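ugh finaly. both done.
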Amino acid sequence: MTTPTFRPVRRLLLGVLCSVLPIAFAGTSDEVAPPDWDLSKDGSLILHRSARVAWPRCVEGMQWSGQRCTGQALQLDHAEALARVKAREKAEGMAWRLPHMKELQQLAHQNTRPAPAGQTLLPAVGQGWSWTASTTISTPSFNTYSYNNIQRGLNGQNTNQMKFLHGWAVNTATVQAQDDVLKRSKLLVRLVRPWTE
């Protein structure tokens, strides 16, 4: 006895789905969704709509003039960058913060695409290594018998403490991230804050 085949039914169902699906997903209006990354009306902020955050167009120490970033970019160590966040929060009453590493990489990656009116989101001035709020939480395994460790005065305890001396930074020109940047290094600072329309 042969097993019945259902090919005609499959073809019928496939035909119905192919004719119904385009109608089900057709838009009812001619509106175009706004881009996920955009500029504020005055051009001073970069808006990431899906993440609901706003980035100043310029690094800390510089201001948007309407056409470019002017002023002197600040080079701060990690503690100074955190102090800058607090000072700006207090002065403006907004919840500024250092971005997480992945957020800053996303912003830097967007710079390879043209923004509205053919502008780039991040002006060329102020590109480079910038601090993030991300911290290093994994440390390499420690070998107490390694001559290099003995020569540098490292032991199991201070190796674990070393991770607190390093932070994550992102190069906004190349999108590269690095987790072993000494927190006393002087880098650029880009802040981010919540944004609502």
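ok and the 2nd:
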Amino acid sequence: MRYQISGKQIDIGEALQKHVKDELGVVVQKYAQRPTDANIIFSKSAYEYVCEATVHLSTGLTAQAKAHDTEIYAAFDSCNQKMEKQLRRYKRRLKDHHRDRVEPVELMGGSSYILASETNDEDSEPETLQPIIVAEMEAKIQSLSVGEAVMQMELAGAPVLVFRNEGKNGLNVVYRREDGNIGWIDPQ
């Protein structure tokens, strides 16, 4: 597995890098069959250190965890515990579904846009009905089953996930509802 360990405006020493590789390697090898790479970023926010970890699995799914603490090692250890919990749940769900994905997740390209928010008063009319596009990016849309999409959304900690339904070959959306349940949009 490839590791990319970096710090945002802080120096990451060799001892911390070795600690991250050893500890995260144990967790990933225990719960993930064939991880491809891991990206760990350390940063400092006020008086706390922040650790963000992303592990890409060979199935195409991604697990993410984020933690913060007053000490950098404690921030990583907390992040590592969250990652272990996510990977343990992921492995348990794979066993529950009795379906091992032998092929990697198929990806399809799509465009992702960030639109500027309106700063005008609610009473005033906007100058134009065309929104201002702040950023335009390439997005990857995964081909998953509904169960895998829900699992990927929870692993990523995202509120919504757009995916291509393997069963019907159409675009679908899963999202977390305000009542805590999962919603699924399946257009006809």
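summary for the 2nd one i guess: DSSP finds three helices and nine strands in the chain.
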